[in-house]
Amino acid sequence: MARIGIIGSEGRMGHALARAIADAGHDLSGGVDQGGNTANLAEASDVLVDFTAPAALEGNLHAAVGAGIPILIGTTGLEQRHHAALDSAALAIPVLQTGNTSLGVTLLAHLVREAAARLGPDWDIEVLEMHHRMKVDAPSGTALLLGEAAANGRGIDLATNSERGRDGITGRRAEGAIGFASLRGGTVAGEHSVILAGEQERLTLTHVAEDRGIFARGAVAGATWLIGRDAGRYTMPQVLGLD
Ligand SMILES: NC(=O)C1=CN([C@@H]2O[C@H](COP(=O)(O)OP(=O)(O)OC[C@H]3O[C@@H](n4cnc5c(N)ncnc54)[C@H](OP(=O)(O)O)[C@@H]3O)[C@@H](O)[C@H]2O)C=CC1
Ligand SMILES: O=C(O)C1=N[C@H](C(=O)O)C[C@H](O)C1
Asked: What stretches pass through the bilayer (predicted)?
């Protein structure tokens, strides 16, 4: 039985996580939100799980490193400097950061990489996502993760081959680009489609999250898997044995 501390405990994911921790028979060591004492929470926990906001990342990593315990980061909207902070923390503790902790999306990323590699550059790739009206970042972390998987399959760099936020006279589609489109509305937990559009045919790979419980269950599996590991960065495919 592991003692799991939640950072962002009063949020949508925080509530789902508390349920998943109890369902899996683990101990909720406590929770913090903005202004809370994350260092104290870390001292009382075997592992921390962070579903908050990018601004909280550095402090959360600092607390985990201070206590010498692993941390799983589900927060999205991260930038390059956040990834540098994750790399630096991973020199001292086990760190797992992912835009999506669900089994389905972890497998989808694998299928997308495979499809992009096999279908080749004549097939245009678009990533479409829809989320609830409260979501604050776009494209979603999952859309970017799927875009990375596609770019990986193609052997190209995502950052220099992305088309995001098309509007107005955009000109024709850039050759080899991976496009992103984001929809927001209602209470949608998360829907992602990767569309591979070729000459007179189209392949669509879709994942639908029907409930946040899927992210919470994956996060609990990932967090407990991290306990006792060497320092370093880990991935959901490793946790789920899909690598
Ligand atoms: N990787 C994955 O599988 C998933 C990732 N996510 C991501 O998780 C994040 C949270 O999502 P969601 O739960 O819906 O968001 P919510 O807005 O519902 O919850 C965020 C929580 O984080 C807290 N918080 C914000 N800033 C800080 C801080 N500096 N220190 C401590 N706590 C803080 C908020 O507290 P307060 O109200 O006091 O500000 C709030 O309780 C998002 O980035 C989302 O994209 C979501 C689902 C799945
Ligand atoms: O904010 C959310 O809700 C979600 N965020 C993650 C993302 O940005 O991909 C994962 C999931 O889709 C729900």
From this structure: none
CATH class entry, domain 3-101+212-239: alpha beta
Distance CA 54, CA 86 (A): 12
Ligand 2 pocket test target in 136, 142, 208 with most atoms within 8 Å of CB:
142
Ligand closest to the CA atom of residue 184: 2
Domain positions in the chain: 3-101+212-239, 103-208
The pLDDT score that the predictor gives to residue 173 is 96
Question: What pTM does this model have?
Answer: 0.97
CA distance 157 to 134: 31
The pLDDT assigned to 242 comes to: 87
Task: Identify the three-state secondary structure at position 76.
Answer: coil
The interface predicted TM-score (ipTM) is: 0.98
* Candidate from 51, 103, 215 with most ligand 1 atoms within 8 A of CB, to mutate: 51
